[in-house]
């Protein structure tokens, strides 16, 4: 049920890339397949064949894996007001998570850092290319 939504997000990323715009997208792409759909769109699920010349090349996406212990994340969720995700779903999110691994283009940032430190680490990685 997530695939059409992920394909829509891919299309938005593709559109902005075509316009020469850098884009930041926040979503919980917990599974490797979800991240693959964000990079390649519907072709990621329609075929396991390599892209043919002339097709849209895969998008270059840097995935930021925000990593931290469940208790820290639970504490932050408890402080949120009006957010759609209840604390009760957190364990299922951890159970579903397939952390990024090579050859995916990603960085892992610890949630045990302060928000300014997290932002600085992400910005530094982006600026380094």
Automatic annotation (TrEMBL):
GO biological process: carbohydrate metabolic process
Catalytic activity: D-gluconate + ATP = 6-phospho-D-gluconate + ADP + H(+)
Alphabetic keyword roster: ATP-binding, Kinase, Nucleotide-binding, Transferase
Family: Belongs to the gluconokinase GntK/GntV family.
Gene this chain is encoded by: Idnk
Gene Ontology annotations for the cellular component aspect, listed alphabetically: cytoplasm
Protein name (Swiss-Prot/TrEMBL): gluconokinase
Enzyme Commission numbers on file: 2.7.1.12
InterPro entries tied to this protein: P-loop_NTPase, Therm_gnt_kin
Enzyme category, top tier: transferase
Domain of life: Eukaryota
Gene3D superfamilies assigned: P-loop containing nucleotide triphosphate hydrolases
PANTHER family: GLUCONOKINASE-RELATED
Molecular function terms from GO: ATP binding; gluconokinase activity
Metabolic or biological pathway, per its Swiss-Prot or TrEMBL entry: Carbohydrate acid metabolism; D-gluconate degradation
């Amino acid at each position: 049920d997530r695939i059409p939504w992920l394909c829509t997000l891919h299309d938005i990323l593709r559109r902005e890339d075509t316009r020469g715009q850098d884009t930041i997208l926040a979503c919980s792409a917990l599974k490797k397949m979800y991240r693959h759909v964000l990079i390649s769109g519907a072709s990621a699920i329609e075929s396991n064949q390599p892209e043919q010349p002339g097709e849209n090349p895969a998008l270059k996406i840097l995935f930021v894996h925000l990593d931290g212990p469940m208790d820290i994340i639970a504490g932050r969720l408890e402080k949120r007001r009006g957010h759609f995700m209840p604390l009760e779903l957190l364990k299922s999110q951890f159970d579903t998570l397939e952390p990024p691994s090579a050859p995916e283009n990603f960085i892992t940032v610890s949630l045990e850092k302060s928000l300014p430190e997290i932002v600085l680490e992400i910005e530094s990685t982006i600026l380094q290319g």
